[in-house]
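During the no-cost extension, the postdoctoral fellow (Dr. R.K.) reprocessed legacy sequence entries with the updated structure-token encoder. One reprocessed record is reproduced below for audit purposes.
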Amino acid sequence: MIKKLGSSDWVRTGRAFYDANEGTCPFCQQSTSEAFAQSLNDYFDETFVSDSKAIDDIATNYATEAARIQQQLASIIASPSKFLDGEKLKAEKELLDARIALNNQRLAEKKKEASQVVELESLNSLIAAITTLIDAANAQVTAHNKMIANLATERTTLTAQVWRFVLDELKADLTAFKTEKDGLEKAISAMTAQIANATTDKVKKAAEIRELEKQTTSIQPTIDGINILLSSFGFQGFKLAKAASGSSYKLIRSDGSDAKATLSEGEKTFVTFLYFYHLLKGSESDTGMTTDRIVVFDDPVSSLDSDILFIVGSLIKGLIDEVRAGTGNIKQVFLFTHNVYFHKEVTYVPRQKGVSPNERTYWIVRKPGLVSKIDRCPTNPIKTSYELLWAEVRKPERSNLAIQNTLRRILENYFKILGGIDLDDLCAMFDGKEKLICRSLCSWVHDGSHYASDDLYVSIDDSMVDSYLKVFRAIFDKSSHSAHYRMMMGDAFVETAPLAAPA
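Re-encoded structure tokens follow.
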């Protein structure tokens, strides 16, 4: 009956109650015979017990080993290698976990009913797939470690492979580059040869030029030029002549005697200047005649009288004109002087169009204390008092208090002192308010320029300044001296309608 019903596990469980119930069946509560007890013992003998224990051991070992494998796979997934396909391994593990759980369940049922036949799900295919993934990752790890262990060799191999790839990719470009490079190198070689030939020719021409300069170089033109200047400027007592060496000068009197010891200080200075002046257009050697030059004149009129001062100034101005025109080898001129009159002579330039103010600069050397200081001036700092008066008139912002005196001094200098014109005749050309203004200017001249009559005092404001300036200009217009007014006003001159003539 037990085998037929397959209830051995149920009966085995009830045996414990059977023994405790002193032979009475715990299921039906009937007394049993000793033969029944013996048959139960025979059925549940030691073999059955050992088989049951074997089933328990198998179930325990299966669960333990499966858990170990699951734990190892979980640690691998938690810290995956970069060579391992983590997502695929995770999917395979999920399938493995499901099959292990199913098998554990079947083993648990087998433990409850030892007579029940159970069949476990095979794990071979899953284990094989997982092993394949891990083996592939380990192979890549081994290859990587091998590469790291031979890093130098691998780097050399990789570099060679990269260059091979680059060469294959750029083969056409490299061929074109090599062709162009060869052409350029040939052109460079040809040009280098031409440059070498030209350099050789240049050296030969320079030697020829030096030989020609030696043939054309002479001190006689300088002697003739200086003697002409000395004669034209009234120096008849001495002249220059060629020395015995043929390459230097000497000063002689009209009778041929040496004049060097008997020259005055001014004559020595003048002769020295003339020599320097001619040296600027030549050279002390036969190889420096064509070099560019910067010339410095350091107080060239020291110990000279006024006549020679103007001569020196005229020669220097001629050199400056050559610099401006770019006709000689002189590129720049520096002039130092303590003589104010010489400065005015050299710096005087008529008003010319096209002359840039940047062509000339003016500097003053001051020595406050023990240190020299150089100050740059925007314009020529040396002017006449008459020019300064006109500069005050040209200024757009004039002093209302000083303008009357400025206009009065200009009229006094130009009309009374230089022109000899009676200022009363100027006032007669005006009527009304203009005549009053003109008389106020002229009356100051009559009173000696230091006193203004109270009855001619006029309070000055901007409108009155404009009236004075209009009358001042009208004086030049009515006296036919408007050209002088236009010249002195320069760029500040403005064309305006003249004052109406008196009726």
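The two ends are 169 Å apart (CA to CA). The CA atoms of residues 344 and 382 lie 7 Å apart. The remaining legacy entries will be reprocessed before the final report is submitted.
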